[in-house]
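Why does residue order matter? Because the sequence determines the fold. Keep that principle in mind as you read this record.
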Amino acid sequence: RLSNLTKLRLYNNPFVDQRICGFCGDIATFRRVTMEDEKAAAVAAGARGVVPPPVPAVAAGIGAGTTVPTAATPRGPLSDASTWRAVLETASAHAEDVGKEATRAREVLEEATAAASETQRNADRQRDVLVKLERALAQQREILAGAEQDAARAAQHNAAVVERARMAQAEVHAAEEQVQRARAEVEHAAPRAEELRHALARCDVRTLSVRDVCDVLLEVGLAAHEKAFAANSIDGLTLSRLEGAQMRMLGLDAPADRQNLHRVARVIGASGQLQVTRADLEHAAAAAGASTSAEARDAVLLAAWPAANVAAWLEANRTPRSVCEKLLAANVTGEQLLHVCDLDLEQIGVAEVRDRAPLLFRAEEVRERHFAALRSFFGACSPPPPSRTVAPTTTDAATSMDNVPEPPPYFLCPITHRLMERLVLAPDGYNYEEVVLKLWLASRTASPTTGEPMASAPLLPNLSLHSAIASWKEQHHQW
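Structure:
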């Protein structure tokens, strides 16, 4: 573990024995051979009385500028041995000093290595701490970014909630306005419905005014044609005379619309109503009873038949199968068959006149039986066309009304306090005029008589009371 300089000094010293420098490897072996040759030469010179040359201080490992002393005694083997012993002792002492210095250097190096290792460990620990801090900082940044995104989403959600609340508030205001308009329309429609009811009660479509006809269109789902009828001043008399081509000029292009309008005009003339329900048809057929044939009862119930029953019935009455199939494909129901016209059959696809003529004749025959049964059931007869008569004076009218007895209280509607004509039995147990009660229930849920909440049950016709009112009216024509 000697330094290189010390090794060179030992290598270059010809007086160092191989026992001192034998550990130095191959170079020391080379130097050993050289030193043995030099020793042999020195011994030979001492025998001849030659003084060896002084050893340089650098080669002996002594400080620069000094010279290793040589023996001044007579030359001989003994003096040479003493000289070599002194040199060897000096070299050994110097080697010990060098070993001590090397030991101290090694200790310093070990201390420095330990300090460097400790410093490296501290650096590693600091690096680990720094990595952990960077990782924690990255996590904090991710958390901060997530919080910012959550805040942005929350802001968007709050904006959406505010927008929905604003829209809901606007819808509430719009609904309130619609309710107010509906109430106003109901309040306005109530007297108008009463006027229309009185106009229909005459059971003659010819007495309807233009306004009445427009109201009828609204009630039967033909409101889109109201303006055309009003612009052409179509009153009840004109309505009763309209044909298919004239209806098409007014915008009624669909056969179903034309049949619906024909149906309404004929139902008004037969019953004084806009609609005859299936229950009314069944009651009318039952009222006919055994006095009529099965064919007549079929004519009454035909209006409630679906298209399949109509096709089967026509085929049973010798109508060509091709015509029945076309009617079934066009979904012609019994109610539509009652009011079919030549133009409707042509639009459906019955092109041959020889097929249309028998079918039209058959429909007309059934229609007459149908509405005759309805007029008999509802006790309504079509009055003769209105004629010009002199209107009674106010005094005569007042005198005639004074002699008219008042109807029984249960004949009067609890809402209008007028004589009922199309009455129904309500869930509260009282009878009302049907149109007026429906207008009442459109905006209220309480009973008009008791004030209690009314159950949502269907309105039932009271046929017995209806017959009693009709009989009383026949006895008192003023009503």
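The mean pLDDT is 76.
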